[in-house]
Every structure is written in structure tokens, then in C-alpha cells.
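Sanity check

After download, print the first record. It should look like this:
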Amino acid sequence: MKNHEVKVYPSKYGLKKEDQLAWKLAALVTDNVPISKEVEAMVINRIIDNASVAVASLNREPIINARAQALAHARTDKGASIFGLSSDIKVHAEWAAWANCVAVRELDYHDTYLAADYSHPGDSIPAVLAVAQQLGLGGEALLRGIVASYEVHVNLVKGICLHEHKIDHVAHLCPAQAAGVCALLGLDTETTYQAIQQALHVSISTRQSRKGEISSWKAYVPAHGAKLAIEAVDRAMRGEGSPSPIYEGEDSVIAWILDGPDANYIVPLPEKGEEKRAILETYTKEHSAEYQSQALIDLAFRMREKVSDFSQIKNILIETSHHTHYVIGTGANDPQKMDPNSSRETLDHSIMYIFTVALEDGFWHHEKSYARERANRAETVKLWHKVETIEKEKWTKLYHDKDPDKKAFGGRVIITMINGEVISDELERANAHPAGAIPFVRENYIKKFDMLTESIIDKAERDRFIGLAENLSKLSAEEVLQLNVLAPKGYVVESKIKGIFG
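Expected C-alpha cells:
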């Protein structure tokens, strides 16, 4: 890996294209190095993971509406398929990516990477897959595109913090989605460079989507990025240029939206000829909740055995990282995070709620743990309001450790009982983390898939989809089109609400 300095230059400096971050990202994307079996195996894991959470979400309202919008953009010739529907039903690629991204993101239950900023790199997969399906590309090209999207996304997240300027993380996702599509198509460096710049330029939005009362837009954010990215690549393929230099220019994103004219970022990227392995640093979720709560859920399961009577708890203090405290903890100062009538999206960004329910129940479920009646239990609300978070330097340092085997997103919990007894414990990382107690392997991804889909699809469909996914690099174009879980006839709910598109 090589570290690249990224800072702002005045227009009169004439920063060479080859010295710009967008060009370096494009050069990385177009450096078609061999992909190891280890990396391919992880891509397969994430395709299975994405499908499992998408199928479990098929009849949730945001997905019903996103699917209806996509179906209003049908294609009679080559097109892309929508999760849950027959592959004979084809829509425009950007609209398939739209519907499928919402389905993947809705439950907040797929992969994550946390460093200087936040990310869900698996959000790129639906965009790359949709374009592969529409243009009739096989598994080898699809694999190449997904690997490139992860590489760009993870390394941007390592180097450039968006959230401290209240910019949403789609600003790293959209360039990664564009990069993945360019790699899929085998485009040249110039075209890829223009597409990445355009994708960033149009994808800046604020973090209000994750503040206060969090709405279904949180699930739509990657879908919005996917549409913008696909359109940016199409435009670049037609020879159109983009605002440049998008990162370093004196009126650029960095100069006016991020750290400003004196900014100095360090972005690590693989050297020419070096394998793209960033996906191996990412991790999925065992529990359907914001990633920074994963270890704390596991810790709640462990600590509940030491608490004989939850009503006798005086208070609960969670010592954790800066990010956890200020994003999903009491440091956010969001009263909505303490409100039992808040949206599911808000509750899954409240560690106070999550830890309380995990402590009381001893399990976590993507629906039961968020049910309105569950959140409104009087004893739960009472205990929930006794939980407070604080930042501790130890946990912030672990959060930002550059060694993936040391990086950790956990915390220490101190439960004080009314009688003065103190119960404390800590956990650095979730059990399912690659460096955790029980790291997720293929068996766990398939078990998660089965748990989320067993009441929806039959064994034949399950085996068909997993068989295709596990043969990824050898798939034909027709098989890539079939890389979709088909729900039983009559299962998928149709929207009864009409909009502009019908």
C-alpha cells in the first residue's frame, strides 16, 4: 500500500491529472490484477449476506414503494432483475439497483467498515450486479467490479472523514459504486476518472438523514447513490467530462465542504500490480442493529446472567468510543433515541434502547426486538432511561487503530444496583468480527441466510441461489441474470399507492 497526500490547490497551480486523487482511484480500478480465492470467497459471502437481508425485507413498506417505482421503468429487451421477482421481469439497471439497494439496506443488517468515516461497502453490490445483468456480463466481470468498489470505498473511508462536517457517507459510497461499474465494464482510466468525479460531485448530502427522528430515507440513501453512479458512468462513457479536480480544487468538496483550504488527508491505495484485498478488512453483522452496537449486544447477553432482578438496577454506564457516544449514544443529544414511539430506524441507532432490550431478552431479532409493543414495555422504558454513555480515550483509540486485528468497536459496561453492588464487564469486538471470538465464515453466512429466508422460500430455491453464488466467477451472463432470490407466487406485496411514475 502507498499513502497519498490529498490537499487543496489553487486553480493557477495547474494540478496534473495524474496527481489527483480521482485519477489515482481510477488507475487503481483499471489495474486489472488477479483476484485471490480468499477475496472471491468473501465476495460470495457478501452476495449471500445481501440477499438474505433483502429477502427478509421484501414486504416492508420502503421496499414495496421502491419496487413499485422500479417496475414503472420496465424494459422489454435486456434489463436487470429485482429481488424477489422472476428474472423474466426486467427494468432499467439504475432502477433495479434502486429497488435492490433499499431492500439490502432496510434492516441495517449487512456489512460495515468503520475508520475515519462510516461505510456499508456491500451497498455497491446491487449497482454493479444490475449493470452486469443489463449488459449481459458474466461472473468474472461481476467479481472484478465488486472487488474494485470495495477497494475504493474502504480506502476513502480510511483517509477522509465526512461525518465531522455532517456530510453523509454516500459521498464515499457513490464514487465507489461508479468505480465498481467501471471495473465491471473494463473501462479505461480516463472514463473511470470522469465517472468517479461526477459521482462525488452529485452525491453530497447532509447527515440529517441519520439525526433525530430517522426516516426510511436511511434505507434509500445507497439507492440514490447507485442511480447517480450508474448515470455518471453512462455520461462518462459518452465522452462527457466532470468538475475537476473534484477533491483538490479550490472550490472543491474538500475546500468548501470538508476540512477547507488547509486540509491534508492521507489516503492509502494499493500500488500498481498489488492485489485488491480491502474487502477482507470489512465485517458483517450478526445482529440487526448499527455496527457499533454489535459487541455491546454480545456483552449484554453475557452480563444478564449476573443480574438477578432488572428492576433493581440503579443505572447503567457504557464507556465507549467517541463515535459510539456521539452517534448512537447519549452524546447525540437526540431525545428521539429515548422515545419508545420513535421509528425503527431511530431505535437501531440508540445504544441505550439496544443494550436494554438485549439485556432483558437475551436475544436479538430483526423484527421482534423493534416491535412497537416491545419498545413500549413499561419496565423496558424505565430501565432504558437509566442508561448513559460516555467517551473514553481507550475505546476511541481502538476504534481508529490502523491494524485490522486490533481495531475494535466495543466498550465497557458498568451496572450499578440499588443495593450498591457493581457489575462490570467489557468486550472489544463483536463475536462475529474477523478478529472476534467466533468469526463469521461461509457456514455462518448461510445460516443467517436460512434464518432470514426459511419462512419465505423453499429449499429448492435456497439451494439454487446459493449454488449460483458459490460459483460466482464461472457464471455465464444468463446465470448472472438469475443471481436473484425468487419469492413464491403471491408472496410479494404490490403497492397500491400511485405516484408520478404510476
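If your output differs, re-run the checksum step. Summary of this record's structure: The domain at 291-427 is CATH 3.30.1330.120 (60s Ribosomal Protein L30; Chain: A;).
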